[in-house]
Design a protein that fits this description.
heterodimer; A: alpha/beta; Rossmann fold; 7-stranded parallel sheet; 7 helices; B: alpha/beta; two-stranded parallel ribbon; 6 helices
């Protein structure tokens, strides 16, 4: 497939590109320069620039809109939040408009499990739970990005897959840190995008069948976030953070 | 002592017809980006500027946000989505506990063929107006829950003056609301102490005769009734 990856300069973007480079032709889109690897071309542009986005989208089979914030955000808190909001709402709208116009069949959006921050840690959270995002822009903007995706999928023949990602880390780098129920190894998160890429739902008659949503988190023993739905999609995480979340004698 | 209300969008298509019905009961701070059509003094406040909204909200008891941009691919996001964020952020910063927000019937279009629609989840399409207002409503909902800001959200379409005589041989739009009814709804929303879960969407119109978008929730929570019974407007020639 020919695949467009947004936020390609981010840590996640580079990991996803590495995951997909063998077997797909990649277009790596970001507002900051990206070093293209094998089977890839880099496209520098703003997500809110319709012409730049149209050029990037035309001819691709699928879009992986990682949802990662741009690297060049302002230092000022208000300006940063305004930029994040614009990127997640207008930027996603511009991208989705181009995707629909270009008859792209698959659209994957990266959201965050932090939309469940308000729930206590002693419950199991699945995709059936209602998000209760905080006003913190890093979280709220991802939730609003999901909303833009829903606006488009209802009336357009495009398959949309939302991945709510846990907090991305590398397992070997957090060995000495306090455990976090939301952790996901970035390499496993990237593999989830590869799984989602296989989902072809554009021809489904009802919008609810064109849409699906998965929680992407490490297979933590007795974890808070249930990932059964993602496992059925083919998600096969390799890092379980067993050093932090091993079964106890009481289990 | 009158409550102080910041009215954003005072010079728009709705504001000049609503604020006259509020002036007697509230101390209004009228604000917009353009002059009032009748020359009424207003403060220039652009909701795209957080600093401007924050300053205008200082000392207020409530904010009524009637700003809107419908079809522009950039301005609709800046006014309807980012503007809603600025309003709620300013309300939170000042400890303001009441915000009236408005949205289009478009977020309910998917239900149009149905009847007895009371409180469905919004299902906007990807058009700039409906999508950006929907995103603004989500922001309001998040801030209302987090900061305990009571936020009635009025959904309507097709505003105008009430007819002076019964209208013969034609129907009204299903969410049309007359000015005096919207004034009445605003007064009720400003006076009510609390609404459940801090955020509620209300169908808001002047006719329940269609039995389509029902007013039951606005009646129950706000005490809203159209000033004239709907049958007043639907009289066939004897």
């Amino acid at each position: 497939m020919e695949v467009l990856i947004t936020g390609a300069a981010s840590d996640l973007g580079r990991t996803v590109a590495a995951e997909l480079s063998d077997g797909h032709k990649l277009r790596l889109f970001d507002s900051t320069p990206v070093e293209p690897g094998e089977n890839a071309v880099a496209i520098e542009g703003e997500l809110t620039d319709p012409m730049a986005v149209w050029s990037a989208v035309r001819g691709v089979d699928a879009i992986l809109h990682l949802g990662e914030p741009p690297a060049d955000l302002p230092d000022d808190e208000l300006a940063r939040d305004q930029a994040l909001l614009d990127h997640a709402t207008r930027g996603t709208h511009v991208l989705f408009s181009a995707a629909v116009d270009a008859h792209v069949r698959r659209f994957v959006f990266g959201s965050t499990l932090e939309v469940f921050d308000e729930y206590p840690d002693d419950v199991y959270i699945s995709e059936n739970w209602k998000p209760l995002p905080s006003p913190r822009m890093a979280v709220m903007s991802r939730y609003l990005g999901e909303g833009v995706c829903r606006c488009f999928v209802r009336t357009n023949r495009i398959g949309v897959t939302v991945l709510r990602l846990g907090r991305q880390v590398l397992e070997e780098e957090v060995r000495e840190s306090a455990g976090d129920l939301m952790w996901v190894d970035r390499r496993d998160a990237a593999s989830a995008f590869a799984c989602a890429l296989q989902r072809d739902a554009a021809d489904a008659v009802t919008w609810s069948a064109r849409w699906d949503l998965f929680h992407i988190c490490a297979p933590i023993h007795n974890g808070k976030f249930l990932i059964d739905h993602a496992l059925r999609m083919g998600f096969a995480p390799e890092r379980s953070f067993a050093h932090h979340w091993a079964p106890t004698a009481e289990d | 002592m009158k409550k102080k209300v910041l009215f954003l969008g005072a010079s728009g298509l709705v504001g000049p017809y609503v604020t006259p019905g509020l002036e007697a009961d509230y101390d209004l701070r009228l604000a917009d980006v353009k002059p009032h059509p009748e020359g009424t003094p207003i403060e220039i406040v652009d909701v795209r500027s957080y600093e401007a909204v924050h300053e205008a909200a200082r000392g207020m008891d409530a904010i009524a946000n009637f700003t809107v941009v419908r079809g522009d691919p950039v301005l609709s996001f800046q006014v309807n989505t980012q503007g809603a964020w600025h309003v709620m952020k300013a309300a939170a910063a000042h400890g303001i506990r009441k915000v009236i927000q408005t949205g289009p019937q478009g977020v309910r279009h998917a239900y149009e063929p149905e009847f007895d629609i009371v409180d469905p989840p919004p299902v906007p399409d990807s058009g700039y107006y409906g999508c950006t207002k929907f995103l603004g409503a989500q922001i309001c909902r998040i801030f209302a829950r987090t900061y305990h800001i009571h936020t009635p959200y009025f959904v309507f379409a097709g505003l105008g003056a009430s007819p002076k005589e019964p209208v013969l041989g034609k129907d009204f739009e299903v969410m049309r609301i007359f000015w005096e009814d919207l004034q009445h709804a605003c007064r009720l929303a400003l006076e009510i102490d609390a609404i459940p879960d801090y955020f509620q969407e209300f169908n808001m119109h002047s006719f329940d005769g269609h039995h389509k978008y029902r007013l039951e929730k606005a009646q129950r929570m706000l005490g809203y009734e159209p000033t004239q019974p709907w049958a007043t407007y639907y009289r066939r020639t004897p």
